[in-house]
UniProtKB/TrEMBL annotation:
Pfam family, one: LEA_2
Residue ranges of domain Late embryogenesis abundant protein LEA-2 subgroup in the record: 69-167
Transmembrane feature ranges: 12-35
Designated name of the protein: Late embryogenesis abundant (LEA) hydroxyproline-rich glycoprotein family
Keywords carried by this UniProt record: Membrane, Transmembrane, Transmembrane helix
Amino acid sequence: MSKGEGRSKTKCLAYVAAFIVFQTAIILVFALTVMKIKSPKIRFNAIEVESFNSNSTNSPSINMQLLTHITVKNTNFGHFKYDNSTLTILYNGMPIGEAVIPRGRAKARKTKKFNISVGVSSDKLSGNTNLGNDMNSGILRLSSHAKVSGKVHLMKVIKKKKSGEMNCDWTINLATREVQDLKCK
């Protein structure tokens, strides 16, 4: 074996080792960024009061129709398919309105936007509430809860269950029929 053959074998081994280190670094970066699956974010963009009826005599009551603008933000590199879910409107922690969030798909790194109409009625309240006092003050404090569950599909091979949850608080000014102070967590 000549002196030149030993050096070429050493160079070849050095190139192979450098290639393996480089490939390992690429795979590690890919695994830590692209393959990291995050939960989607569901949010209210806006809420509009479409119709409103109230009665503040003996038994105070409110009936209204709300139009909600909802977004499902998918920050993953794969699409998010979610099932039917429920949006619940609450008054003092008691449900007064529900609507179905239809199943759908948010594309990779995109935001899916849609509108949902929700019927809200104080007839669903039971027992002793402060509805009459809130109506007299002119401000009605409401909250909402929604959870969207589904699967994130990465490269049509990896499927992982994830869910996004929304809890929002807001007030409705009864004089102007406008939603104010919308805060989501």
